Amino acid sequence: EEEESGGRAAKAARKEQDGGSSGPAAGEGGGGAGPPALHRVESRMLSREEEVEATRETLLSPKVSGGRPDGVQSWLHHRLARRRSAERKARAAVADEATAGAVSDAASVSDLSEVNLSDYPDAEEGELPDEGEVAPPSVAESAEGLCGSDSPPILVLCHTNHALDQFLEGILAFEPRVVRVGGRSQSEALKEHNLAERLRVRKEERAGSRKTLLGNVHAHLKGSRERLSAAAKQSHRTWGGGLLSGLLLRGQRSFRGALAAALERLPEEGMAAWLGLPPAGEASLESVLAQPQMGPAATEACCDEADRAAYSGGGPAAAMESVPLVDRWALYNSLRAGAQTRAQAELVAALESYRLAAAAEQALEEAEALAVLRGAAVVGMTTTGAAKYQTLVRQLECRVIVFEEAAEVLEAHVLASLGKSTAQLLLIGDHQQLRPSAACHELALHYGLTVSLFERALNNNVPYVRLRTQRRMRPQISRLLSPIYPELIDHPSTFNRPAVVGLAHPAYFLTHQSPERTRGDLISPENPHEVEVLCCLAALLVGSGYAPGKITVLSAYVGQLIALRAGFAACGLDGLVLSTVDAYQGEENDLVLVSLVRSNSGGRLGFTAIDNRICVALSRARLGFYCACNLEMLTAGSELWRQVARHVADAGVSGAGLPLALGDVSAMPPPSRLGSVESSAADVAPERLASGSE
């Protein structure tokens, strides 16, 4: 009715305008009448403006809204948006018509031809903004336009929980409105920013009516769950192979009277006796079930005969005995089929009731979570969480999505996180480190499934920004990466890192020719020599005062990792961080010991020939990096290893023995701190620790 009222006002205005003048006014240049097409568009636009104004007056009248505009504000905004869209299409039609030559007066279309489409980056040709209307923001605009106070939150996605925690902790330094989705966070700083914690606080502060609503939904769900459980048990009993009690057989309409009352009180044993079956006669029960079912008419006749026997003075016993044995079997089969049908119908109804109750609870929980997330400036989750909470991600309508570790995320995971509201996608990663992992090796090998969207964009010359300054490694370690990152710059904070106690070099390659081997129960190779060397070195470092948690031991293969774990346990070294190279992507530690394992006569490098894995292995240490490997074989099979080996040779940081540096004795820990660990380092293989010049 309100729309019709506005429409009538618009029609009256249009009729008055058409009657008052025979055509549009002449242009400023004094030319003839304007083009008919423009006249029609201007008339339609004027009538729409008047219609909107009439509708506004109608809706804001005391009858409709009680004088309060807030109740219709969103409706008016929607209506105006639709009007502007229609007006843009009308202008586009006029532009097309003018281009085709339908308008004879060129001066009348000069306004359209003077419009510069470059001023409106998001507008296609023929789609012009309204006069006085601000053009929609382009993707290239500043982050302030995309992430204002009224904008949806920024969505931060990471491949691992650890990387997500680190990223969000950095954001907390300048933006407190952060919400982390997912329960596998290990960060104490993000504990109060977790979505579950925010929902718990919100639940405590919830109004009484909201609590009542949620309580009713939970109670309904609990009742539906109990009903479903009972229906499932009933269906299991009726459809099972055992004998049914009389209580389960009741409910059939044609089964009534004294016979029904008597059979309802019979347990399974009594039912077996009434059917003439032995106590454990499963074979006899099969013969009963093989009999045809009794029809409704025969059932009623049987019940009438039982009623006459019971009312003649025999009671329930006479009613039961009045049914012949063969008819008892047919009656039982009929009652059993009816019980199964009723149980199945109840199970379907209970399941549907449970589904509705669960959907209602999920809708309320999502509404609560959505309210919390919309109040945040940054929402963070893993790629797995984005898939799990896809409904929430869609409803958030985030315009900016930031992907950390984008180079090791499958392209499908990135695309699945994008929505129609996405205006800007920021990918952060390093395609020279680990690639995404694919479950199907054939797809990875022949179809490029392990090429991330990040790497594919770089390969296709998409503009990017490279971060050149590193703040992790001391310069002696970062120089090992010069073949991979030729433009890498060391931050000044890395220049004054403390020296590694007891060792002459902060980076060193312990070379050898000892062969690898493969255990019978494992395909993954291991190298006992490297296990022995790294056990001695780890014992020396722990004995020098380093906490075990500050030492990471990396292996290129799982088999070697198992051997290293056993070796450290034999030496009494607990608390060291042990991991494969792939699993340690994105991590770092003060001291990193690496076992590359491969050493064979065939020159097979395996994983150690992959440049991405080499990059990860060389870039994890902050203070000290020590690698046990057959460097000669590695350089023979890999160009990258040849470049690294040239730098190692120039710096003189490779050899069969590890140079020591005793240094200032006062810097060493007290004797009680060294204890048995120091002696174990000397007792296991002292000849492998060659002393240096000091």
Write up what this structure looks like.
With 694 residues, this protein is an alpha/beta fold. The protein contains 27 helices and 17 strands. The strands form five sheets. It has a six-stranded parallel beta sheet with strand order 13-12-14-15-9-16, sandwiched between helices. Strand 14, helix 24 and strand 15 form a beta-alpha-beta unit. The chain starts with a helix and ends in a 10-residue tail after the last helix.
Architecture blueprint of SSEs:
Blueprint: H1 2-20, H2 36-59, H3 62-65, H4 73-100, H5 110-113, H6 143-146, E1 154-158, H7 161-172, E2 178-180, H8 195-204, H9 208-239, H10 246-249, H11 257-264, H12 268-274, H13 282-289, H14 296-321, H15 325-374, E3 378-382, H16 383-388, H17 390-396, E4 400-403, H18 411-416, E5 424-427, H19 441-446, H20 453-459, E6 469-470, H21 475-478, E7 489-490, E8 502-503, E9 507-511, E10 517-518, E11 525-526, H22 528-543, E12 551-555, H23 558-571, E13 577-580, E14 589-595, H24 611-618, E15 621-629, H25 631-637, H26 639-651, E16 654-655, E17 660-661, H27 671-684
Parallel strand pairs: 1-3, 1-4, 2-3, 4-5, 6-7, 9-15, 9-16, 12-13, 12-14, 14-15
Antiparallel strand pairs: 8-17, 10-11
